Amino acid sequence: MNKVKITTALTVALITTGFASPTLASASAVDKYSSGVQTNVHQTENFNQGIDSSTQYLDQFVIISNGRYAISENAKLNLSQNQFAELTNQLSMVNQQLAENGWGIDEKTKSIFKPQVRISGMKSTEFWWGTRYYFYTNQAVHDFSWKLKSIATVMGITGVVTGFVDPLLPIFSTVRAGAISWDADQLEHYNNNHIHSHIFMDLNATTAGVSFGTF
Questions:
Q1: Distance in angstroms (rounded) separating the CA atoms of residues 61 and 31
Q2: Which residue has better confidence, 32 or 213?
Q3: 112: closest CA among 5, 181, 205, 212?
């Protein structure tokens, strides 16, 4: 798995409501592997792999206990006070959302069981650290990019993002419409450089960043 990290001001996981996306050329709607040999992409789906190194380090201390995220006993011996406090706060916030919405956790992957918004050619998986979006077609990338830019437009006009933000992750007042639009451009750029590969996009609440990779 290849991965590149791009830190931005965007600290929210987006798209829980639908937009009517513009129709694009049908040629981009075919599977990105249609011109080559497709690998077994399911080997990497839904597993907490490929995340940035700092989050991956914290993840080894995250366990599942009684259907909720918890911190392992050896965490205090290996984490700084700030790291421990930040991880505690993040897991507490996510666990509250799990309880309020009746969501569960896959103990093997540490991913969250919850209703997902379905977009053709794309799926999302949520973890304690944020949301990963998997893209299987170029059309799906274009649709998602358009959704991000639509949200940026709404934010630019109203200054709010209520109704368009995933409730799992916090909203920060410093989020700007320009940052979301920039992320959409970066998604398109990354896809253009990996036009025949499946790509994913991580929106990470723990690093206040967005990153991309292939699978």
A1: 37
A2: 213
A3: 205
CB 5 within 8 A of CB 190: no
Give the residue ranges of DSSP H helices in 8-137.
53-59, 75-78, 81-101
pLDDT at 155: 65
Q: Which of 182, 212, 204 is nearest to 14 (CA)?
A: 204
Which residues, 6 or more positions from 7, have their beta carbon under 8 angstroms from its beta carbon? 207, 208, 209, 210
Question: How many domains, in total, are found in the chain?
Answer: 1
Distance of CA 132 to the CA centre of its chain: 3
C-alpha–C-alpha distance, residues 147 and 138, integer Å: 14
Contact of 94 with 168, CB cutoff 8 Å: yes
Strand 130-135 versus strand 199-204 pairing type:
antiparallel
Is the CB of residue 97 less than 8 Å from the CB of residue 159?
no
Across the range 99-108, mean pLDDT stands at: 93
Q: Residue 93 contacts by C-beta under 8 Å, 6 or more apart in sequence?
A: 170
Per-residue pLDDT tens for 37-94? 333 333 344 455 567 788 899 999 999 999 999 999 999 999 999 999 999 999 999 9
24 pLDDT exceeds 70? no
- Cα(102)–Cα(210) distance, integer angstroms: 27
Domain that holds residue 159: 3-214
Beta bridge partners of 4: 212
- Tell me the residue type at 54: S
- Among the residue ranges 116-125, 129-138, 152-161, 199-208, the one predicted with the least confidence is 152-161
